[in-house]
Amino acid sequence: MTAPGRPLEARSVPSPRAREGGAILETVASEVCGTDVHLHHGRLSGVPYPIIPGHVSVGRVLETRGPLADVEARPIAEGALVTFYDVYGTCGACWHCLVARAATRCPKRRVYGITAPAADGLLGGWSERIEILPGVKLVPLPEGLDAEEFLGGGCGLPTGFHAVERAGIAMGDTVVVQGSGPVGLNAAIFAQLSGALRVFVIGAPKERLDAARRLGVEDTLDITEIREPAARAAWVRDRTTGRGADVVIEASGNPAAVPEGLEMLRDGGRYVVVGQYTDSGDATLNPHRQINRRHATILGCWGYEFSHLHRSLSMMAKHTARFRWRELVTREYPLEKAGEALADMEKLSVVKALIRPGG
Length: 359
Ligand SMILES: [Zn+2]
Ligand SMILES: [Zn+2]
Known about the structure:
Radius of gyration: 20 Å
Oligomer: single chain
Order of helices and strands: EHEEEHEEEHHEHEHEHEHEHEHEHE
Bound molecules: zinc ion
């Protein structure tokens, strides 16, 4: 991806060699997600184009240099099927890392496929090889999980997990998720696994809402059918004895969803904003009615840490019979059709798409 708005370009480079303490992966598959569409429109700041897209990927270890181990000190051998925590550069020495303990806000933090310049190497998954830099943490896929299942969750898996962790759901809670993309669907899954009694998803298009119901969601609201925000809030209140939901998770990307979602929240409820990953503009709130008098707790949720990837992947391995993540993968594309994959993602005609560099 050479620059915003430009067609994708295929480039050949010499096959990389592993650095000391690093590895080279042969890419099995890499996800296509809404972030890639944002990147292609230049909607994220600080992106060092040209970049190789693809931040969440699965590969086979082709070459290592020096012994590599997973977080539980089990060795990772060549040939292992792995994913990796797609962040590097986090310094562990700055105020954000050490005092605030908010490593996702470290100014040195870089993300594969997003803030990694192509000039620095094969640091994105839409590529036949991926370079694992020293210190980047490999995560072997748990027994019984393959690339398709894991990438059916994709970056939405740890992101949805993180949002649910922030929400602090109590057993028996009623949860509303605004947005039916991968983050929203994963939040709906983890809300159930956290003990939510009832989960509702609000979004579009129909295929994504059908997927939500297959994932155990009690009911869905199609925003293309019920178009008035007040009517949508009334829909939630009708289902919650007029009180509103205990927890509302915003995963829609639309700023207007925030005041709308606060109208769906019960007094004393918790509201998590995870969908506003790019700056899509402002929204107007009524601080008296929607925050102060409602006694609301409002939380933001940025990125995810290693713990979210590790825990969400372990949860996926345990619950894959109940929640069919792999069915969220609606299409696969070879590398040369990556532009088509972006266009389909933008039209929302796919829930989750994969790039298969090996064809
Ligand atoms: Zn730092
Ligand atoms: Zn993603």
